[in-house]
Amino acid sequence: NENENNNNSQNNREVNNSLESGNYSLESRISEVSFFDENILPEAELRSEIPGYDIKLSGLEVCVVISLGLNKLRSQLDELVQEEARAFFERTQRDSNHFLTHLTSLLFHLSIRFRNSKLMEKAIMQMEAISDQFNEVDSVDESNNSSSDSRFSFFYQLPCDPYWNIRCQYAKMVRKIGLVKTALDIYVQFEQWEEILDCFILLGRLSQVEEMILERLEIKKEPKLLTILGDIRHDEQFYHQAWEISNQRYSKAKQRLGKHAFQRNELEVAISHFEDCVRVNLLQPEIWFQIGCAATQLGNHQKAAEAYTECCLQDSTNGQAWNNLAAALLEIGKLKEAHNAFKQALKTDREHIKIWENFLVVSAKLHEESDVLVATETLFKLEKNRNIDVEALGMLVAIVENKIKNKNDENKSSEENKVQSQAVQNNWFTNRVLSLFEQITTTTAGNPTVWDLYAKIEKLLDHHEKALEFQIRSCRTIEEPGWESDQTKFNLLYPAYLKLGDYSIGITNKKSLFSVRTMLQSFVTRSTEYFGATEEFSKISSVLEQVKEIERALKQSTPQ
Question: DSSP assignment of 320-357, as one string?
Fold first, then answer.
């Protein structure tokens, strides 16, 4: 027995060494289709300056690189990540010396290529080559155990697809480009009834699939076939039959019943069916999402939050579910949790304006300063400069104002306060806010409130000349014809002119003061007839005298 065990161990070592060296002959190797296209830009490749990086990978190393590429694909489905993952699969495809590693690399590689409309035809050709040659390895002498072992080496290290699944993937591809009959023949071969139904609908032969199902049901009643028959006839009794004969284990029957009830707006009934569905199979994120939607419409936000939470746990890439979860959490008063949910939603969909608006509101309530800034910047870019959230800009100015107030202590000297104010000016947050105002006023110069806020923040930062310039622009933007005889227009214009007095303090530019005095003088002259006896008129007149006094003081202090 000991000698026999030693011989078996020696044989196993020889087989393992044989596997690592690879017995995948060129004759049995799956033929590869070239995806080169002169009309497509050069693609990313895995490169490195590290010596020895380009050496041929071993079988186990190929499995690791395939796993890395697959992990990238599952994490996010944007084009940049797909391109990076494709480089991984091309490298493993090149270095594969085993049937399964080569097959797996090809399948993932062509799944990425198929998303490109220019390479879709070549991807189908590659899948056809895989389907045709899948069994060709059987031509190798079956008496050779090492060749059989080589074919299935790394079986447990790779997400291998069975032959029928590869054929169904091929059918899905050809159906997408319009070859429905070809896809139907493959689906019939492997009894994929739901896909068969879809193909017959596209071909306009619904009665034929019904006949096929009825023939099968005469032999044996199967829950899946009853459910599909219910889909064809739009009859819910077949869903109930499927649920009963499966001993309440066929979840798709309850899924269909829930969707029909939801469409009839029988929300409580729908929730009951959906809960039966997830009780059988918990891992159904789309059903949890439906429960959340129904609960939201019923006003049961606690139940909706629980359902959306489960949906997000199972599918973290569902941005709509994260957004709905945040909305439900807001309704039950969980601001912090809602804020985190909005962040997750934005990771999956960064161009959804409504999510950014909700995120901005919650960030403002939680005093998340940096998030308020990022949300305001992003909304300005996404809306193509058409809409400006003035309230958000006001919040940003208030944040900068609070920073300055917190820095300036009453017990500090004016020189120390000046140093603290300079520190705020150099703060990244303040610089980003100023940059945002500059972008807004450059593209949309007709909003007086924006100019007013821009002037305010410049004054807070002791930029007196700029503050006065922007306040003058605010006055000119808000001024409308006929304001001197219209109470409403006068009331809108008056506050902007009143601020000119404060903004004139500290100005040393004679031209700027002259412009302010001229504007105030014009305001007083034109409004005398209708508003000369009002308190507002008196205040503007006082501001005019204040500006004249500043001019006289500046003239006296300036040497002749």
Answer: HHHHHHHHHHHHTT-HHHHHHHHHHHHHH-TT-HHHHH
Instruction: Using a cut of 0.85, tell me whether the model's pTM lies above it.
Output: no
Non-local CB neighbours of 168 within 8 Å, separated by 6+ positions: 186, 187, 190, 192, 195
Rg over CA atoms, the chain: 36
How many C-beta atoms surround the C-beta of residue 443 within 10 A? 12
Alpha carbons 121 and 431: distance in angstroms, whole number: 51
Q: Which amino acid is at 65?
A: V
d(C-alpha 414, C-alpha 404), whole Å? 13
* 3 state SS for 254-300: HHHHHHHHHHCCCHHHHHHHHHHHHHHCCCCHHHHHHHHHHHHHHCC
Long-range own/partner contacts, residues 491-495 (CB < 8 A, 24 or more apart): 493/523, 494/536, 494/540
Name the 3-class secondary structure at 36: coil
Nearest to 307 by CA among 326, 330, 287: 287
Contact 194, 223 (CB under 8 A): no
For the chain, give the mean pLDDT. Answer: 82
What would the pLDDT profile of 199-229 be if each residue is shown by its tens digit? 887 887 877 878 888 888 888 888 988 998 8
Kindly give, in sequence order, each residue whose CB lies less than 8 Å from that of residue 542, ignoring residues fewer than 6 positions away: 501
Q: Tell me how far apart the alpha carbons of residues 84 and 73 are, in angstroms, rounded to a whole number.
A: 9
Q: Which residues contact 446 (CB under 8 A, 6 or more apart)?
A: 477
pLDDT digits (tens, 9 = 90+) for 231-264: 888 899 999 999 999 999 999 999 999 999 999 9
Distance CA 156, CA 71 (A): 17
User: pLDDT by residue (tens digit) across 151-201?
Assistant: 777 888 888 888 888 888 889 888 888 888 988 888 888 888 778 878 887
CA distance 556 to 510: 12
CB burial of residue 45 (10 Å; 0-12, 13-18, 19+): exposed
Categorise residue 371: left if φ over 0, alpha if ψ from -120 to 50, beta otherwise: alpha
